[in-house]
Amino acid sequence: MTALAPTAGVPPASSASVSLEPAGLPPRSRLAVSLCILCGVALMSLDSAIATLALPTLSQELAASKAATVWVVNGYQVGTAVCLLPAAALGEILGLRRVYSFGLLLFTAASLACALSGSLGWLIAARVVQGVGGACLAAVGPAMIRHIFPRSMIGRGLAMIAMVVAVSGAAGPSIGALVLEVASWPWLFLVNLPIGVLALVLFWVLAPAPPATPRPFDFVGAVLSAVSLGLVVVGVDGLGRVETAWAVGAIVAGLVGLAGLIAQQSRRSDPLVPLDLLAIPLFALSIVTSMCSYAAQILAYVSLPFLLQGLMGKSALATGLLVTPWPLMVAVAAPLAGRLSARWPASVLSSLGLGTLALGLALLATLPGHPSDVDIVWRMALCGLGFGFFQTPNNATLMTAGPVRRSGAAGGMLAVARVSGWCAGSTIVALLLAGAGPGAPVWCLGVAAGLAGVGALVSVSRARV
Length: 465
What we know:
Blueprint: H1 15-19, H2 27-53, H3 55-61, H4 66-69, H5 71-94, H6 96-116, H7 120-148, H8 154-182, H9 187-190, H10 192-206, H11 219-240, H12 244-265, H13 275-278, H14 281-311, H15 316-323, H16 325-340, H17 346-365, H18 373-400, H19 407-435, H20 440-460
């Protein structure tokens, strides 16, 4: 392996970690493997957006209630959340290439099972399995990026992921609507098969096999993390549907379980939860920054339709078009931020991005009662610009703060921070929508702006570590 000098944007945790940094693949091989990883990212992002859009159709076709049909989305989220940390650990123990390939295979096979499901129960079960595959992709994908890109270009690799997520999220509803216009609902899942199979074959042939770190797998920790995170996700969903009593109980039980998990992990020499990485100030601050930003993001994403349709009288189609500038600007800003992350530290770029996001959210919260479309669009674009500039430098710093052998654990914690932020944001949305009256969407945007501001302050504090 070639020793690489540290860059301004992605400082190493120690001189030892720098000496072990991979030099990356040659440009052509790097591009081919990156495309395979991006195919997996696109499949996950498109699938989530399409499944959400298809809920009314699934409810009608499968003769199920709307509340029950929501579990087509929730089942996937639970499957993903409970397997993130185990998938990250297995990536280091068995090898990143094996676990990513398994995740892509499982996701593709589960897509076929979804299409063949004859009842809602079987569809939900297949979606849970699909979520397990998605957890492998989400946890291991960023770690693979660290191995195929040279250190100075890791920001660019992660920017490609951010761009694909943004574009897929923006295009998902339109693609889903087009599929349902010309075909039956199983085709929403069948379209995954050719992409998944092609990406799997190419990835297995072309991707490098980073060295594994054999050690015992922590089964007790895996069960504790799965049960605890699962209870939190299910409880947050219950709050969103105003099922307060058992939802609060589930969340409390999940948090108690997480406390027990940390206690159990602190006694192990090979913990499932990467306590060694969390002890690195740069890594820990980057995790907190991520959680604040994703909480702000989900607060805005959930509340904006209520604001635009409920308070401003916009149609569903108009709402979709007015929100689109946000993900599109993320797609524009992420590659630029990726290039700049090799020159400027995340304490500068991410802080400016989150500050811009906070400003955009505050401007959305203070919109007049009957704004023009232009007033809404430029504020959405400002939010997307800020989020795009935050995301890539922050993720690059998080992925490179520890030694390269812990890339799997870092990728897993990156995904856990995202899910945790979304859960926290969803809980706040549920509480505000239930208790803040007609002005709840405005309150949600105000809280989102505050969280983005807190994230900016945490981010800028990284300049001192």
